[in-house]
From TrEMBL:
Stated name of the protein: Armadillo repeat-containing domain-containing protein
Membrane topology value: Single-pass membrane protein
Domain Armadillo repeat-containing stretches: 7-147
InterPro entries associated with the record: ARM-like (IPR011989), ARM-rpt_dom (IPR006911), ARM-type_fold (IPR016024), Armcx_regulator (IPR051303)
Source species: Cherax quadricarinatus
Keyword Membrane: yes
Keyword Mitochondrion among record annotations: yes
Domain of life where this protein originates: Eukaryota
GO CC annotations, alphabetized: mitochondrial membrane
Length: 211
């Protein structure tokens, strides 16, 4: 972490960390870097290259679920970056969110955080396919968890750091008018999109929202 405090070597140090944090052993050794990496993502003044490199490392570390709860303060920022105009940052934020959503214990926190404002505009065939696939995967995982676990937004979502009701990720999925729009959008995708995995994830989301 000392290297990460030095402005001159910060970016190459994080990029190097991203290249080595691939095995479980190395991931465990990099765990102490979580707070400073998160600060690089949170800091609005950080340059995009440093933010992207930090997101890559955080995504790799998140392949081990035992520290996922430490990501909770970062969730709103990750959702905010899904609205980014930088395709690489948008995609890497989604990759990290998908990793976190694989942990069922993280679902309530993911639903309670303030969701992306442009979310529904991404669920269309013209969206970059890599982005679209991960948006659908994330939403389908969240929606299925809500249905299977019968989550109640008033009772089951954590109150700490919870966004205002209309802004939560839960509301971005199940809010008034939003749900019907997503149902129509996902139906169009699984009926017309050529990519089979996008079709599959669109079908998962469609069925969860229709339940």
């Amino acid at each position: 972490t000392t290297l990460l405090d030095d402005d001159d070597v910060r970016l190459p140090a994080v990029q190097t960390l991203g290249n080595v944090v691939l095995s479980e052993e190395n991931i465990r050794e990099a765990r102490d870097c979580l707070p400073i990496l998160m600060s690089f993502v949170q800091n609005s003044h950080a340059d995009d290259a440093l933010r992207l490199a930090s997101l890559v490392v955080l995504t790799n570390i998140a392949t081990i679920s035992e520290w996922h709860d430490e990501y909770c303060p970062l969730l709103h920022r990750l959702y905010n970056l899904v609205d980014s105009n930088n395709l690489h940052i948008q995609l890497q934020s989604l990759r990290l969110l998908v990793n976190l959503s694989c942990n069922r214990e993280m679902i309530p926190s993911l639903l309670a955080a303030e969701g992306p404002r442009k979310l529904s505009t991404l669920v269309v065939a013209t969206t970059n396919e890599a982005i679209l696939l991960r948006v659908l995967t994330l939403l389908a995982t969240l929606a299925n968890a809500v249905c299977e676990d019968e989550l109640n937004p008033s009772l089951d979502l954590p109150t700490e750091d919870k966004a205002a009701s209309p802004d939560t990720m839960y509301a971005r999925l199940f809010g008034v008018n939003v749900r019907d729009r997503l149902v129509a959008q996902t139906q169009a995708l699984f009926e017309n999109h050529e990519d089979p995995e996008i079709q599959r994830q669109a079908t998962r989301l469609y069925r969860a929202l229709k339940d």
